[in-house]
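Tokens as discussed.
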């Protein structure tokens, strides 16, 4: 419903994207994930911290700090918490993925040493995503591949590598999983879609962004974030709408966009230092 109402509003003769509120004081926010109950999980790489915020913008809990410990990070790159039971962090320089429960208690780490079956090659996790069935997908940047884990946390397969034909990835940056199980990968300046069994489906270019930073699935499509704007696409690659900083009514300071997410009637836009909550209305 959110997706349809936003599309209709932005394609109306008179529509505006109105800033409802803005909050946060991050150092260098790089990733946003909206949990099933509406909590906002923000990864602040500048402070090596994960922050849990309420819908009102209040900080509920913070974990992290630079280090090697179970509750510490070193240049983390992505957070996934949309399914609600677990939170996963791509802890890049520590070469691991950390898993926490919904109360942000440490559960386990995935490293090259404890992945079963044993992983070939190096392990530099850049992004993470969960399916509705509890499958974990990891973008492993050094091998330019996707690793898929079953709900029991055993590696099931890898795909997207150099021998994947049309599905071969060149510089995978982010990943998201649609409700029907499609795996959506942001690969440099194109989107590559696979089915849940790692079969290549289609790809399409993103020509209207100088660079791309993140991708997020919604109920019927996806949001791609770049420094200057957020673009919405259908799963088939049809552009639905775009929002730039200059198109947001009530925005005081325009910063580069880093990520985006939705919950209920609200669109959440992550910048380096804050979260902007947007309402899109027809007039």
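Sequence:
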């Amino acid at each position: 419903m959110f997706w349809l109402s936003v599309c209709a509003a932005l394609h109306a003769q008179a529509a505006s994207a109105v800033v409802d509120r803005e909050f946060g004081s991050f150092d260098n926010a790089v990733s946003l994930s909206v949990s099933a109950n509406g909590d906002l999980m923000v990864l602040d790489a500048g402070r090596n911290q994960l922050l849990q915020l309420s819908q009102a913008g209040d900080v509920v809990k913070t974990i992290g700090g630079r280090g090697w410990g179970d509750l510490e990070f070193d240049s983390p790159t992505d957070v996934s918490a949309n399914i609600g039971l677990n939170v996963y962090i791509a802890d890049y320089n520590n070469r691991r993925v950390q898993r926490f429960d919904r109360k942000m208690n440490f559960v386990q780490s995935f490293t090259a040493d404890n992945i079963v079956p044993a992983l070939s090659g190096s392990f530099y996790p850049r992004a993470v995503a969960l399916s509705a069935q509890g499958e974990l997908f990891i973008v492993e940047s050094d091998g330019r591949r996707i690793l898929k884990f079953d709900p029991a946390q055993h590696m099931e397969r890898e795909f997207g590598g150099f021998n994947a034909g049309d599905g071969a990835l060149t510089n995978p940056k982010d990943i998201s999983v649609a409700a029907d199980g499609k795996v959506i990968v942001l690969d440099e300046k194109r989107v590559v879609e696979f089915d849940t069994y790692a079969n290549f489906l289609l790809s399409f270019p993103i020509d209207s962004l100088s660079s791309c930073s993140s991708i997020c699935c919604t109920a019927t499509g996806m949001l791609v974030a770049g420094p200057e704007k957020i673009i919405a696409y259908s799963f088939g690659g049809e552009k639905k709408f775009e929002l730039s900083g200059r198109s947001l009514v009530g925005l005081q300071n325009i910063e580069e966009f880093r990520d985006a997410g939705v919950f209920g009637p609200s669109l959440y836009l992550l910048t380096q230092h804050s979260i902007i909550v947007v309402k899109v209305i027809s007039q």
